[in-house]
Please model this.
Amino acid sequence: MDAFFASAEQASKPSLRGKAVIVGGLGPRGVVATASYEARVLGVHSAMPMAQARRLAPNAAYLVPRFAFYRSISEQVMALLRALSPLVEPLSLDEAFVDLEAGGTAWDAESARLAGVKLRADIRAVTGLTGSVGLAASKMLAKIASEQAKPDGLVLIEPGTERALLGPMSVRTLPGVGPATGDHLRRAGIHTVEELAEAGEDELVRLLGKSLGHALYAMALARDERPVVAERETKSVSVEDTYDVDIHDRVRVALEVQRLADRCVRRLRGAGLSGRTIVLKVRRYDFSTLTRSETLRGPTDDPAVVREAAARLLESVDTTGGVRLLGVGVSGLADFTQEDLFAQAAGEREAEDTGEDREVEAAKDAAVEVPVERRWVAGHDVAHAEFGHGWVQGSGLGRVTVRFETPDSGVGRVRTFAVDDPALAAAEPLPLVSRGSGAVVDGASA
DNA sequence: TCTGGGGTCCTGTTTCGC
DNA sequence: TCTGGCGAAACAGGACCC
Model:
């Protein structure tokens, strides 16, 4: 999907179409998750600190991500993909590999192109959003093709043309080559994929180690036999928070670690999992990050056990100077629990909430009401008894500003209310394509 | 006003059990 | 009983991806 989060917001809010839209954390330490193409023109891109984005695009619309909304769109798209083949490997909410051959959907370049064209039309019809398609003989090449296809395009790499196409490209194009490996190669005088191939396998292994060396050499020769894997098991579950200001107080740090441990266990249980290894993560004031881990005798999903382990791990880290981030994770997962019966007997706690909003979870952690200022989250949907459906443009000083529009309305009017106006209530996002016009879905999934 | 959150995989070192 | 060796886990840190 193209600029997925930002596109979904633009489709949901007519007044944002054609405008720079930036989705990400809005706090003082937020970063950009997705920038619309209008914002990218101004130099804004994902992973950029929000502060920098605001300097580059002071007039853009800034929104917090609405993952539940994006997930519902993602599920529609994934359903279209599964209609093409049982072998679908999601990489994230907005990207997946599909083995068209295994699905009997395509057997040569021409049939693949046809499937791609139809898929793009179906995605558009079902979600109202644009997606790009890369078609090639391997995962690596399909990925590169889809990058080239963005936005709103389709690129097919003809068999036999792979090496010529790859040769002049930067090594950074290859999956697995990030800033560090890129620098490493550049210092060795290797800039392009061609030069990577010329360097030879032994040299790459010497430079980058066994695993990456072999992998990159194979990719430079356009060799990639990795299969599309439909179901991949979760290997770890973790939660972490970056704080708006560094925490110095040891007691407060310990308290936050307990809350994170509880949140982590809730997620673990929600997924029906338990784990043996507890990991504590601490990012200090100077951005240095360290982890401490402890492996238990058997897997657990008991909040008290995880809390205690996390607390023990915290004792071994120096937090003087302050911490900016804390995290708690569990790995070494099993889908059963050894002391399951123990945990049950230990007290009928019924804290198995599954997939709730972070806002709600955070409120639960703190065991306090959501403060009135936070009730109207910028970008979230609301319904007004008289004016109908809209979204929060901003709130503060006891007031909330709402724009009344829906995915298929025109640009809506703006009105301001008191934050406690009884006529105003939170609402679910509306579907981007009104039901009834989605007949194409049935054709695709038949 | 510097730098999120949730993951995966790899590597080097230490520890532990046989 | 002491020692050595070996391999598997455990542990910590980093790179990378979306």
In short: Residues 244 and 399 of chain A are 24 Å apart (CA to CA).
